[in-house]
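Milestone M4 deliverable, item 7.
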Amino acid sequence: MNEAPKIGLDNVVIAKVLSDSADGISFGDVIALKGAVNATVNPNSDVAVDFADNGPFFSASNRGNTELNLEMIDVDVDVLAQLLGQRKVNGITVETPLDQSSDYALGFRVWLAGKD
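Output delivered:
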C-alpha cells in the first residue's frame, strides 16, 4: 500500500505592496507569520485542445484568479489587524464597515517527502 507523501509548510511571509505600476513593484518590510498549518492553492486554470490530422492540433490555456486557502494557528493580532485594514486605539483593535485592506504579497515554502 502506497502512503501519500509527507508534506510540510513553513516560512510563511507577507509584504505590503507599496506600489505596482508599469515601472515596477515595490514592497514594504517582510513580516514572518508563525503557525502555518496548511496551504491550498487553486489556479483556476483550464486547457482546451482541438484535434486534427490524427492528433492535437491547437491548444489554448486560460488562467483565472488564483485562490489561496491558508490555515494558520494563532496569527498575531497586530498583524491580523494590519492585514484587514483595521486600526488600534488604546491597544484595542477597532473594526468598522469602512475598513480597507491593502494588497499584500505572500510567500511560503513547501516540503515534499523525498525531495530536497
